[in-house]
Amino acid sequence: MSDEIREQVSALVDDELDKVERPLLLGRLQRDKGLREILGRYQLISEVMRGAGQAATLGIADRVKRALEQDAALPAADKSKTAGLSWLKPIAGLAVAASVALAAVLAVTSIREPAVETAPRVASTQNAAPATRGSEELWERIEPRIDKRMAAYLVNHNEYAASRGVQGVMPYVRIVGYENRRQ
Amino acid sequence: MTGSLASGVLAVVIVAAQNVAWAESDARQWLERMSMASQSLNYSGIFVYQRQGSLEAMQIVHARDESGERERLLSLTGPKREVLRDNQVVTCILGDRQAVVVNKSRPRTPFPVSFPTELMDLKRHYSFKVLDEDRVAGLTCRVVAVEPRDEYRYGRRFCVHDESHLSLRSELTAAQGGAIEQVMFTAVQFPQAIASQQLLPDMDGADFTWHREPKEQPETDDSAADSRWEVTRVPDGFMLTDHGWHQLTADDAGVEHWVYSDGLASVSVYIEKSLQDSEAYDGVSHRGALNAYGTMVGGHYVTVVGEVPRQTVELIGKSVRVK
């Protein structure tokens, strides 16, 4: 378990986790029992500090999972009450409950950006074929070299293209789609 | 006698013209409903995506409630990839590349109700037809075809579900009529509610390289007139619909972006300063129906991307110059 994940959990319970990272962490919480246990420990610390003692010690980790499952069972009409908040809403109640204690105990000073960037990816492509000039398959060949830029273009263009007109094919399938020819 | 014959011919011509007009109007109604359905329904399903001789399976979950749209698209074949989209952001998690790309999402406008003045233009460049009934994913659907009138745009062919109006099969077609790429549901459901868990990713991307669009965008005056660049040629019917400057990732210096649309297809032109003057960057490529043209102009990368034929991106890309 990396420090970064722990910091994200901490930020989550403090309700300070970046909204982009929230669904990713929630997804991980669903799958990772160990991570839920960590969240449970944070909750336990919180309750002990508030004097709840032993009564609160058991089964806390799985409450997170149950909370998510209960949320899943809510019909759409109930969900509408959460307007304005997206994926995090199911866990927000838990986060608020634990937040005061965690802020004191964990001494997490900041949320680190998740592993920003990428010089190696660009640098590694310096040895690529020297010229793509005139290539009919430019995309496949230069994509590793300009991977980051082209990926950003594609996502950006998809949003503009999808915001107008009729999409012949769901735009993001081309990003999710797998290039067999790269193999 | 001659007069009555002429009247008869005239009547036939008028009826034929009316039928064409009704057919077009009918087709556009199907498309409007389809466009609305794709944004307003809860649905989930498995579909296949076919292009260039490859066939891939994917899953989509789309939810709509008062907080807006949320969507999750994930690959079921090949490397794990997912796209999550809501009203604020689009997050692309590319498992095979250990990368996450985050970008702001943009509001979607239903076709083309809000652009009535564009309808006449659309008819100049496309014909609309309602064709036979078909069956996809066990559901009855109506085939609606949009055919281009020139070689600068692709056609579209949809099979629109009779009841929900969701497109169950979508094709992009070349001017000659052959399918370039196709998406077809093999199973689809329309649940009353979508569980939040279904919209969470399988991958968390924590150890991946993140490429984020910065929250603070550079100060821009969206006027293309202020640009030192100009796009001097676009195919008939394409109009400039957006222009601006973006910073697409935290470490890039910013990119100028021009968007042209003919009402159905969109083309983006990206102009970005090259960090390496000697770098060669010139050519065309495609990913399914998405064509790209790249070239260097005055030490800048010029990249044109769109769901249009190669000649369209090439024509536009070669016309970009410094004022």
Q: Pairing-aware structural class of the strands and helices of chain A? A: mainly alpha
- The structural class of chain B is alpha+beta
Shape of chain A: elongated
Strand arrangement, major sheet of chain B: 7-8-9-10-11-1-2-3-4-5-6-12
| Computed Rg of chain B | 22 Å
Largest sheet data of chain A? none
Please give the number of β-strands of chain A. 0
H and E order of chain B: HEEEEEEHEEEEEEEEEEEEEHE
What distinguishing features does this structure have?
heterodimer, A: 183 residues, mainly alpha, 10 helices, 0% strand, B: 323 residues, alpha+beta, outer membrane lipoprotein receptor (LolB), chain A, Phosphorylase Kinase, domain 1, 6-stranded antiparallel beta sheet, 20 strands, 18% helix
Question: What can you tell me about this protein's structure?
Answer:
The complex is a heterodimer of chains A (183) and B (323). Chain A is an all-alpha fold and 183 residues long. Chain A has two domains: 3-106, no CATH class; 119-182, no CATH class. Chain A is built from ten helices and no strands. In chain A, helix 2 (21-31) packs across helix 3. The model of chain A is unreliable at 45-65 and 70-144 (pLDDT under 50). With 323 residues, chain B is α+β, with helices and mostly antiparallel strands. In chain B, the strands form three sheets. Chain B has a twelve-stranded mixed sheet with strand order 7-8-9-10-11-1-2-3-4-5-6-12. In chain B, strands 14-15-16-19-18-17 form a six-stranded antiparallel sheet, covered by helices on one side. Chain B is 18% helix and 45% strand. In chain B, a hairpin with a 2-residue loop joins strand 17 (283-287) and strand 18. Chain B has two domains: 19-199, Lipoprotein localisation LolA/LolB/LppX (outer membrane lipoprotein receptor (LolB), chain A, Clam), CATH 2.50.20.10; 215-322, MucB/RseB, C-terminal domain (Phosphorylase Kinase, domain 1). The chains are: A mainly alpha (183), B alpha+beta (323).
